[in-house]
Amino acid sequence: MKPFAELLDRLVLTPSRNGKIRLLVDYFGATPDPDRGYALAAITRDLDIPGVKPGILRALITERMDEVLFGYSYDYVGDLAETVSLVWPEPEEPVRANRDPSLSEVVETFLETTRSDGPAVLTDLLDRLDSSGRYAAIKLFTGGMRIGVSARLAKQALAQFGDKDVTEIEEMWHGLELPYEDLFAWLEGRADKPEHGALALFRPVMLATALEEPDYDKIVPETYAAEWKWDGIRVQLVAEGERRRVYSRTGDDIGHSFPDLLEAMDFEGSIDGELLVGHPESHDDQQAVGTFSDLQQRLNRKTVSAKLMKSHPVFVRAYDLLSEGEEDLRALPFTERRRKLEAFIARLDPSRFDISDQIAFADWGELNDLRENPPHPIIEGVMIKRHESAYVPGRPKGEWFKWKRDPFTVDAVLMYAQRGHGKRSSFYSDYTFGVWTLDEEDRQILVPVGKAYFGFTDAELKQIDKYVRDNTVDRFGPVRSVKATPESGLVLEIAFEGLQSSSRHKSGVAMRFPRVSRLRWDKPSAEADTLDNLKRLLDENRGKASRVRPA
Amino acid sequence: MRASDLLHTRPEGLYCPPGDFFIDPVQPVERALITHGHADHARPGHTKVLSSDQTLDIMAIRYGEDFCVERQIAPLGETLDLNGVQITFRPAGHVLGSCQIVVEKDGTRIVASGDYKRRQDPTCLPFEVVPCDVFITEATFALPVFRHPDTTEEIARLIESVRRFPERAHVVGAYALGKAQRVIKMLRDGGHDAPIYIHGAMQKLCDYYVSQGIDLGELRPATIDRKQKDQFAGAIIVGPPSAFADRWARRFPDPVACFASGWMRIRQRARQRGVELPLILSDHSDWDELCETIHETGCSEVWVTHGREEALVRWCELQGIKARPLHLVGYEDENE
């Protein structure tokens, strides 16, 4: 258990992405099967231990210590697994076996455990481990590692470990079985790529590159098709035999949040599209497609109520058809897939599926105009696809482009700065900024409207850091309050993708993807934007389709 | 006499009416008895200060020679009389010069222990258990989650990390008085002979420890020598925790951020601070030591000063020992 416990401890304390990947690669290299496979499953959250549930932890610990003292401890630490691992009374006579149990022994014991013998098995194990080991063991069945490693990052580490492309791993992932011995054998070059007979697997997604100026001339109607880029989440729907799956673009199975959609997936094939909320058949734009914040109501839910499915129905606006029946279409040119897609979608429930319309354009200038003035507020730009393009995982150059609307900008005043992490831990690099409004007595005050921690260069970071240190008026732990009055303050030009009304923020607005686009050392603080400016933008733009109601 | 007539709280701090003195007052007073030199306990501006000679020296180093009008040394273990109240200073094992203050009158004995620890520390005298009626205890780490591991092993982990990453600098955050010198001394005892670099704010206190016979080996200021590019590779640098947020920390290439503190027992705490190598090493007692000490004093009543009072009060209740929090304000525990 020690190597796995140490891995978790080190991952928690390693802020950098590359550092985490290195730790994982080293672990995969140094750890034998099946331990490394179980560790991988624990990290990607593919390990399900039905016989041991978090509930028994609390019962076990309060049999061993005062409940009030445990309550104080839990309040302080904030994480059940960590609290129990720290307060677990170590037996006076060490019952520790002469050696550390291996991860696979622990996992296999857990997997064989029934609900009735769960407490006894867990007690025996916790008595044999030290506090790090207890933490790791508890994390195995409570889920939610809180180690800052996503399933995607773990797969990237696997790719690096085996010098493979991550899309290959994503593609086979849902067909693999614990403890992944065939996967590791392939990654180590000892065996062929694992063959899978499983149905409804994820197909790695084709992505677009951002359109840059040198590409402008290439965009001619003869070679490229254009369609709107909708502001939902990219999904892949796969139905094969009895299996139906909704995958995110990174291959996570998210179907449990969308039983209404799964039920409507009455087809054989796989569709690439955008998940949106609304009533696609409605002639009223606002009814047809809801905002991203409407969609957020449906994301990351374990269970979803009938009421919510009625008030926020989801549908898929299809972009592409990857397979039909048993036929893989990915090698076909886009135009041909598109033709098949049109016929395919026409056979499905129109309240759950429609097709992403193509946009006719005569030249680049016209496309630019369309991009800047889209017909619906939930459009965030245009997608441009080469007629001849095959469906290839990743971001192949020159095939698909995304061309977003220019971001909105606002001039805001720096209010608070917080120290960063890792390399930035001695820099004030996370900024809360505000815009002007009037208080009850008609005085100008700043109200925070967002936080940004990127968009500036290293040189600019140094300048802002110096400004923060020189103009600090108060401190709260790692946060400094910066002088910000109409007479004196640093104006930051903030770029953002959209505004949402928000009851959680004092200002009533929330920004999407805010970042610092320019430092306005030249601009007097009093001339920064006002909350009224922002609210006007909310009304004019994204606010149009503010809520979706049942049609 | 009733214990609460012998000592009770006032806004300035813990006050003894018959003896007319305060213990560790947070505001300037006429007569102050000081347990140890940490800034929240030892403040400048009192008229008369009674403390151990080392604590008085430390106060003079930190605040200047004129930190009070009149200094009086309390020789360890000798009983003094202050207006009919008997006062004895006994070692507390917290930092160099730290003492518990035993206050006695008419057969009632109260021990104000200040901050204390029970672990062996090569830089100060060990804690002495003094039997008493009322024991006044700190509660910095008074939660069952705080069980400090073996200190030597924590230091060994630091030495091992230096060996594993010889190209990186290990920057250790440690409180400038006590913790820093203890870490350095234990590194020496653990076999680390190379020069150790220290932050400028620690120089005088380290010099003082050396003058008191504690050998810290070769210490160098952590200043940049432009001619020597890789001077900090493989080196250990010790600085106050606050310096890590400062521009000072930027001079070390690819540093391993270490922090020597009892708080490092909690993973998310270490993570929030951006610590890569947490060293669980404290100058305060952990949960088990607080509980054991209360039993050993044989006291019938416990008063709890600063920290997680509610948990320690709860534990005392479960043991059938009378306990209450003192609600003193002005003491910090975050910088431990």
Account of the protein in words:
The complex is a heterodimer of chains A (551) and B (336). Chain A has 551 residues and is of the alpha+beta class. Chain A has three domains: 2-142, DNA ligase, ATP-dependent, N-terminal domain (DNA ligase i, domain 1, Orthogonal Bundle); 209-404, 2-Layer Sandwich (D-amino Acid Aminotransferase, Chain A, domain 1); 408-542, Beta Barrel (OB fold (Dihydrolipoamide Acetyltransferase, E2P)). Chain A has 20 helices and 20 strands. In chain A, strands 12, 13, 14, 15, 16, 17 and 20 form a seven-stranded antiparallel β-sheet that branches. In chain A, strands 3, 4, 5, 6, 7 and 8 form a six-stranded mixed β-sheet that branches. In chain A, helix 1 (2-13) crosses helix 9 (131-142), helix 6 runs antiparallel to helix 9 and helix 10 packs across helix 11 (166-173). The longest helix of chain A has 14 residues, at 17-30. Chain A starts with a helix and ends in an 11-residue tail after the last helix. Chain B contains eight helices and 19 strands. The A-B interface holds A 9, 12-15, 65-66, 68-70, 72-73, 76-79, 82-83, 86-87, 131, 135, 146, 419, 421-422, 425-426, 478 and B 143-147, 244-250, 257, 265-268, 270-271, 274-278, 308, 310-311, 314-315, 318. Chain A: Its EC number is 6.5.1.1. Chain A: One of its GO terms (molecular function) is DNA binding.
